[in-house]
């Protein structure tokens, strides 16, 4: 018993000592904090103040992307995310509740405004959380819809401002422009980051710097009166003006879509460039995607024009021809024996099964795209000099365009047979961007221009505009050689049996070269042998006497219809786009301009009836916009050439009225948008099936016009042909003169 008492006494003494020591240490800590005023090296006052200090992010705007005329390609718009406060703790005044009071009523009302069932909204509101969101249905809410919801005066429903990147043109150079991904941050905000194309390569310039505002609040979250605020202003990102022309790009997309539907190729590429500056005027590919809806993105992640090297076929002969002329070994009137050419034990055949055309001149060989002609030219040039020439044209290396993952291609030049096949476009690989850069030297007096797509940059902070200067990246040939090469390339178009005779333009002299390339098997075991297993292409330069535009179109493995040829595929894209581009850019046609065209008169200040009478003889389709009595604006502009059935829009001095756009092309609809200043939204591709605002109704810049587009074959009462902007797209080809000028060229002996 005594032993037990002693143990208890010892235990009590131990506990007393332990708690006594703990109390002394705690008291010492309090005294230290009171005297020194710091904890862990940091002032206590600042830590206490931090509990009542609120920091709010002031979001910057990502820079806009515009076309060469200032039309929007990509921009940020303010949207809202909807939040429901569930917990009643934030409600101080019961007469002014700050949380959702009636869940059933709130769910019923919200179901009218967002894409979510009433029952699903109710499930979200019934969760035991402080606040909830509504998934994608509650995001990207427009200002107008947000205001409508706020008018319902639903307690606890609040909105958080966000920014959404929009691409109003849908399918529009999408693989060049790219898109933005929005990553949610820990604080619930979203960070916009470019994922591909210009949005990615120029992400640093386009991205802004967020600002912030700091202020003090009380325990209930209210800002304290007379609280000091610390403001850091946001800095918006730079805006980019591109070299792309919206009108030309839109027409190119229409033609590419039509060809895709009709011929179902595996891939297509098309580029329009100004050879004097290197400016990319238009660029498109298939497959592609809609940047706004993301439709097709899973099938089209790469920019084929910059990232996909391929064997170009006979378009490559342009470089061989220029090299021969530059080295003084090309005599257009000299004869050679066509048909076949031997390299060691391998025979090179002309594309007509090696039959050839007997003894013909080199000028005829160029027009007929004879492989044997170019094999003979290589002998005259010399293999070493020819490789140097190819390298001077920029082949085998990147153009350094600034786009991600740009390919370099490969000059295949190890063995004698590879050197010969390179001379007519087989074996060696290039990118479409390299082709545009190299051939710009031929179209620009020997000066090779670097392709570029950013016209100018506007600083988001200072507003200063910096223009991109055209860059000469080499002079592979002389001016005399460039002009002589263009003269020979005209024979491809103008000669009776020229392989490019079907690409003639109305009123403009054209130089160019066709191409048909075999496609290598993925496993490297030779080439594909199917009837459509080729890459068909055409490079056109116009006007040939003073080139202002060059356009390259390549189509891989199209399904060619009975009675048609590969030329029909390329022509349906090249002819309408090149013809319209030259006219739109007001590039004067040759003196012998086809009589079907007339000069657009100046109708400004004319009475409507007089203007219509003036245009009656032109055969153009005239649309008067507005209810005024005098003309104030017109498209096309005065002095431009107009053609039969081309749409002419006249704007009057009265109220702007909505025209009947049924069966209009997208390009014609954009003319109305341009002349009226009223934006238009498009859904689908093709021609106008329906319009959201009826014809005759007054419209303004605030009007929301949506046009539903559809394939012409599906339009009711579609009897009229498209306007002359696309007039030549579907003309039937007279004869099939463009046959495989590379395919079957090599025959082992």
UniProtKB/TrEMBL annotation:
Residues 594-651, 652-711 form the PASTA domain. Its EC number is 2.4.1.129. Residues 729-739 have a biased composition (Basic and acidic residues). One of its GO terms (biological process) is cell division. Residues 710-749 are annotated as: Disordered. GO terms for cellular component: plasma membrane. This is Penicillin-binding protein. It comes from the Bacteria. The keyword Nucleus does not apply. Belongs to the transpeptidase family. It is an enzyme of class 2 (transferase). InterPro entries: Beta-lactam/transpept, Beta-lactam/transpept-like, PASTA_dom, PBP_dimer, PBP_dimer_sf, PCN-bd_Tpept. The keyword Cell wall biogenesis/degradation does not apply. The lineage of its organism: Bacteria, Bacillati, Bacillota, Bacilli, Bacillales. PANTHER family: PENICILLIN-BINDING PROTEIN 2B, PEPTIDOGLYCAN D,D-TRANSPEPTIDASE. GO terms for molecular function: glycosyltransferase activity; penicillin binding.
